[in-house]
Amino acid sequence: MSEARREALLWVAQRASAAVLAVCVAVHLATMIYAVQGGLSAAEILGRTRGSVGWLAFYALFVVAAAVHAPLGLRAVLAEWFGWRGRACDAALAAFATIVAAAGLRAVVAVFV
Questions:
Q1: Is the separation of the CB atoms in 96 and 71 below 8 Å?
Q2: What does pTM read for this prediction?
């Protein structure tokens, strides 16, 4: 794959993950505001979301979008500010993405179970 094509795909992944994150953040905030205004505590909210496959899927999508979006944005910052480019940078950011995804999905599963 050419470098230009690879960069174009990363650009699309960054923008697509941003769009998914925008929707997820809006839904999350609206849900939390609604729940808190309804007088629910954190324990009551967790009690209602436990075992919900819908919320599991929603928050898993949220985590995956963040795990795609953040490393790509960080990649641009590292390249611009520090001139760090190439395979070492990409490998470090792939490791970072893996850690973000693993930690986030672990939290999602913990809320589901």
A1: yes
A2: 0.90
Size of the chain in residues:
113
Q: Would you say the C-alpha torsion 70, 20, 32, 51 has a positive or negative sign?
A: negative
Q: What angle do CA 53, 50, 101 make, to 5 degrees?
A: 65
Measure the CA–CA gap between 59 and 55, rounded to whole angstroms: 6
Any idea what the CATH number is for the domain that residue 81 is in? 1.20.1300
Domain that holds residue 86: 3-112
**Distance between CA 69 and CA 60 in Å, rounded?**
14
Distance CA 74, CA 27 (A): 25
Question: What token pair was written down for 70?
Answer: 């953040």
Total domains in the fold of the chain? 1
| pLDDT tens digits, 16-48 | 999 999 999 999 999 999 999 989 988 898 888
